[in-house]
Each structure stands twice: as structure tokens, then as C-alpha cells.
Amino acid sequence: MGEVLGHVPGLAAGGAASPLPIGAVIIVPATPRGRVNGLVFVTGWVVGLSVLGAVMPATGGKGSAGAHGQPADRVGAFKLALGVALVLFAVRLWRHRPADATQAQLPQWMAAIDRFTPVKIFLRALLLSAGNLKNAPLTIAAAASISSSGLPAGA
């Protein structure tokens, strides 16, 4: 349990520090249906991350532990591949950033969010949580840490 508690909080902090979801969480309650849309957004966010995390028991799990209860080599290789993907994504973002900060524009979906229905809000939350190129690898790595630890389901 201690090993999992050592791995997961850093990954969770990385996912929580995404600027787009933070912006959405600030903007959604200010919409005309803010209370409903806010609850729908949070529900979509949790569902997206939960579904993404539920995929990992196939990669990790008790059956993939090594001889001394350590995670299998493939779990470490998978996490390494996710890390490389994040670095490549960061380099791509850095190279395509606006030259002048005043050129940065609000994404079109954020400008139109006050007209979104609860269904569109839910789908946007799913996309921002599970489909986000930063959050998805972090969530998968956290789920791999949890699933490869050999902890029972209740823990």
C-alpha cells in the first residue's frame, strides 16, 4: 500500500494541474445552467477517469507480479513509454506555442460553453478527462501502479 501511495499522488497532481479543465471548472458554474452543468461536468470528469483507469487491470494486476512481488517488467516498460509520450507531447506544445502571449486565443468551445446542454457538458468533460493527451497517460500510469501492486480490490 505504501508503494502505491508513493506513486499515485504525483501523477494525480500532474493531472489536476491541467489548465483546460481548471478553466472549464471556473467557467461552467458561471453559465446560465451553472448548477446543473457543474454537477454534470464533475460527473463526466469522474466517469472518464474511472473508465480509463478500469482498463488497466488487464495490463497490471496480481497475475503480472514478478517473483518477489514486484510489478512485471512490462508494467515498467509501459510507464516508461507513457513518460516518453508525455515528453514528446510537451515538446510539440512548446514548439507550437504562440510567439506573443497576446496572440493566444480562448478555445472556441470555451467561448460557446454558456450555450452547451448538459449532454454536451458531459461529453466535453469525458473528452477533457479521458481524451486529454496529458491526463490520459497520467491516469493510465496511476492505474498501472495500483493494479500492479497486488493489493486486494478492497484496499
Lay out the secondary structure.
Blueprint: H1 2-16, H2 19-27, H3 34-54, H4 73-95, H5 108-111, H6 118-130, H7 135-147
| Computed CA radius of gyration, to the nearest angstrom | 18 Å
Estimated structural class: mainly alpha
Distance between the termini: 8 Å
Mean pLDDT: 76
Q: What proportion of the residues is helical, as a percent range?
A: 55-70%
Our estimate of the beta-strand percent is under 5%
The rough form would be described as globular
Count of alpha and pi helical runs? 7
Low-confidence stretches: none
The ordered H/E elements are HHHHHHH
Number of strands: 0
Describe the largest sheet: none
Characteristic key phrases:
63% helix, mainly alpha
Describe the structure.
This protein is an all-alpha fold. Helix content is about 65%, strand content about 0%. The protein contains seven helices and no strands.
